[in-house]
Design goal:
globular; Methylamine Dehydrogenase, Chain H; 4-stranded antiparallel sheet; 401 residues
Length: 401
């Protein structure tokens, strides 16, 4: 069967150098932000040299998320009940035929967003939704306001505390609907829409065992036990449709999604030893890819949109061709990292930094750097402690004197 993944104009941070005005020089810069698994520390590193640019002392160990533009890194300090924010110091301003690259010092901003049990972070076109499981509330902030260190947040309350998620679409906010009798113990049962008055009302869109969301192109996907909810925004209205799992799939579900960049698709987990490629425009939308060992982490490549990467517990990194749906190459990188035990044990995580794939190797106190074009390891970057979560931020553009 022929498949056609929809190509879209991504809001990638990289910008082509199509012309070179006087007094401008083309440069590339990438940074890595690495959170320690055990200690409340985040390190900012130069991705090329490995130099530690700054070390940020936090209140609790953090998981990391980057804003779509790459200007901000949000640190979820769950045990401290807050999201803290780091300015990455890298921005690319789009000028149509070229982008201007600005590189400054990374900075821990003097603001945070507090609440009980902070959980999901979702940035949708510069509106950032922060969900707090223990409050049953979402705080929505604009990236531009956060960059100006303004902590004003729009707040939407739901029926009860639960492990939820929200996505902002202009004045409308899509929020998860808690389980009616066991909101804390059970996953949400669907989504509703909150309007400009911040009140959740209206139709319930069923999504049993809701967990996991991602955006790709014009679509936001939310994972359910029964399939995916696909959400589009048109003329200030939200169009929400359910995509059933294919009957050819074995019993299971996705609970974690990432969205393709440059190609419109989604990649999700599906059982412990497989992933599923999802093309929402195809007649048969789901393709199952069996793995040689249990899956640890996966990520997409925004620079080479055809590829995604999956790390498995046997220590291998796999290159997945999302067009063919096949694992094209595998690379042995670490000793085994068993998936047995607590979910938050230190295990490798993947990020893509331009021409490099970055793999944290927490038990060896290092980052492994893989040349993405050759899919071969190129070097190690030593990092103190137990480097765990990682995000990469950077791009190319003109630097004006």
């Amino acid at each position: 069967m022929t498949r056609h993944l929809l190509v879209f104009s991504s809001l990638a941070i990289t910008a082509g150098l199509l012309m070179t005005p006087a007094l401008a020089e083309g440069k590339t810069a990438w940074r890595l932000f690495v959170a320690d698994q055990a200690d409340p520390v985040i390190r900012a590193l130069d991705a090329k040299t490995g130099e530690v640019l700054d070390t940020f002392k936090m209140k609790a160990p953090a998981s990391l998320s980057r804003s779509e533009s790459g200007r901000l890194v949000f640190a979820n300090e769950r045990d401290a009940g807050q999201f803290s924010v780091i300015s990455s110091g890298i921005s690319v301003d789009d000028h149509g035929d070229h982008g201007d690259l600005k590189v400054e010092k990374p900075t821990l901003l003097n603001l945070n967003f507090a609440g009980k049990k902070p959980s999901h972070f979702v940035d949708h076109h510069g509106q950032i939704a922060l969900f707090f499981d223990g409050d049953g509330a979402v705080k929505i902030v604009k990236e531009s306001d956060v960059l100006g260190e303004k902590a004003d947040a729009r707040e939407v309350k739901v029926a009860s505390p639960h492990h939820g998620v929200a996505v902002a679409f202009g004045e409308k906010v899509l929020v998860s609907e808690p389980h009616p009798t066991e909101p804390v113990k059970e996953l949400p049962i669907g989504v509703r829409i909150a309007g400009a008055n911040n009140k959740v009302s209206g139709e319930l869109y069923d999504c049993p065992d809701l967990h996991g969301e991602a955006a790709s192109g014009s679509i936001v996907a939310i994972a359910c036990k029964s399939g995916l909810l696909l959400v589009k925004s048109a003329n200030d209205e939200l169009e929400i449709n359910h995509l059933d799992y294919s009957k050819s799939l074995p019993e299971g579900k996705s609970s974690a999604l990432v969205g393709g960049k440059g190609l419109q698709y989604f990649l999700g987990n599906y059982g412990p030893q497989a992933v599923v490629l999802i093309d929402p425009t195809a007649e048969d939308a789901f393709r199952l890819i069996e793995l040689p060992a249990r899956r640890v982490h996966f990520a997409v490549d925004s620079v080479r949109p055809r590829f995604a990467y999956i790390f498995t517990e046997d220590g291998q990194l796999h290159q997945l061709d999302v067009i063919t749906g096949k694992i094209e190459k595998s690379l042995q990188l670490t000793e085994p990292y068993s998936m047995d035990g607590h979910w938050n044990l230190p295990r490798p995580r993947i990020a893509v930094a331009g021409d490099d794939i970055i793999l944290t190797d927490p038990l060896k106190s290092r980052l492994q750097v893989i040349d993405a074009a050759r899919f071969e390891k190129s070097r190690d970057i030593p990092v103190e402690g137990t480097p765990y979560n990682v995000v990469a931020i950077g791009g190319s553009g003109e630097v004006h004197e």
